[in-house]
Amino acid sequence: MFILLFISIVILQRIIEVIIAKRNEKKMLSVGAYEVGKSHYPFMIALHVSFFISLIGEVIIFERTISPWFFWFFLAFLLVQALRIWCLLSLGPFWNTKIIILPAAKVIKKGPYLFLRHPNYLVVCMEILLLPLMFQAYFTAICFTILNFIMLSVRIPIEEKALIEATNYSKAFNRKVSTSVSNDSSNEC
Predict the structure, then answer these.
(1) d(CA 120, CA 66)
(2) What does the alpha-carbon distance between residue 168 and residue 147 come to, in Å, rounded to a whole number?
(3) 100 - beta bridge partners?
(4) At what angle do helices 138-166 and 119-134 cross, to 10 degrees?
(5) Mean pLDDT across 162-186
(6) What is the SS3 assignment for 107?
(7) Is the confidence at residue 41, as pLDDT, over 80?
(8) Confidence category of residue 180, pLDDT binned at 50, 70, 90
């Protein structure tokens, strides 16, 4: 029962984040922003929904219990959630689940973005690993960690290319991205 309650709270948190993202998307689009990466976004949503279905299914079907290492995994999970909040607060209206680009915007270089280009993706990677490990759902942990890395190998180059083309990203991060990245139709700042 505790396991399902815990997972339900995390799902509720994700729903709240989608609401915040939708609000931010509306704000950004109203001031001239545009979306890139539309083609992969439905797959990303499917991956995240499938993750929770797999986690719940594995816990119920295989009668998984709380890990003997639960305290340490939970502590790491709380630190990851603190980083998530720091990312959201640092990006403000630029934070989104989609890649939304505001042309000529200055890239955010504060908070965790002073240290990493994509700290929010680190949060997602850690969460996809930690949540299943807390409940000994090893199949879900391994499969979705791999699937998420595949998704990010598509998403990050699209995002960086769009940021380089439309913002001061190159200057801010001293970064060049290969021109072999396809020109998709969504962006994020």
Answers:
(1) 26
(2) 31
(3) 35
(4) 170
(5) 68
(6) coil
(7) yes
(8) very low
